[in-house]
Amino acid sequence: MSSVFRKLPDSERNTNASLYFGNIDPQCTELLMYELFVQFGPVKNINMPKDRVLKTHQGYGFVEFKNPLDAKYTEDILRGVRLHGKLLKLKKLESKPQTLQRQQIGTFVNSKSELLSDKYIDVGASVFVNNLNPLIDEKFLMNTFSKFGTIIKEPEIKRDHEGNSMGFGFVTFGDFETSDLVIEKLNNTILMNSKISLDYAFKNELGENGKKVRHGDEAERKLAANAKKNNLLKLKNSGRVSKKSKHR
């Protein structure tokens, strides 16, 4: 049975027969979850990612059945069920390859009228988002954070060589007013069952003391303020002023 609990590469996983399960109490072990799911059909694989330090699961996991119909049946039957007082959350995995998913996400993001990486000046309002749920993708970040203001680059989620989310990403805004507001409102809030943390991302270059420096410092803010004052936050290669510049 130990092979049932090993992590499978995406290439070996049948996503049509797989479910994500979340909001799991710390008392729920892989064995307990296996015994729950096997009641609805033969289980091929079950995995609950663990904290590297504490060696405890992180409140979610993935189960793959041998038959796709069993996955659908399980999702329907267990809807609304509670384990140790917590509502079990189930979601069908996407059946498309990671590479195709990312291409479609990119198409979606680039079709958004507010995505102006080739038009807006990047003032450095780049936000680091940590502890992301593995099911969150770039499209989800775009939908969530664009509600606060203009995003000028495609949101980025760092992924491993298999295409799996590493749990953190970056969102770049067109001004510091928006990025400040996002950090204030969303830091330490729950996003898809995970408590996320937000801060300004580190710059690529080191500071004068040889240490990493975050975006959003006084120098960047002064440059951004001068650009705004002198009406330089315009659409590049165009005589038009951006919507955001017009209304400020």
Automatic annotation (TrEMBL):
Keyword terms: RNA-binding
Domain spans labelled RRM = 17-95, 125-203
Query: Which terms does the UniProt entry file under GO BP?
Result: mRNA splicing, via spliceosome; positive regulation of mRNA splicing, via spliceosome
Q: Name the source organism.
A: Candida parapsilosis (strain CDC 317 / ATCC MYA-4646)
Q: Has the keyword Signal been applied to this entry? A: no
Entry's SMART domains?
RRM
Quote the PANTHER family the UniProt record gives.
Answer: SPLICING FACTOR 3B SUBUNIT 4
A GO cellular component entry from the record: nucleolus
Q: Which InterPro entries match?
A: Nucleotide-bd_a/b_plait_sf, RBD_domain_sf, RRM_dom, SF3B4_spliceosome_assoc
Which Gene Ontology MF annotations are present? RNA binding
Give the protein name, as stated in the record.
RRM domain-containing protein
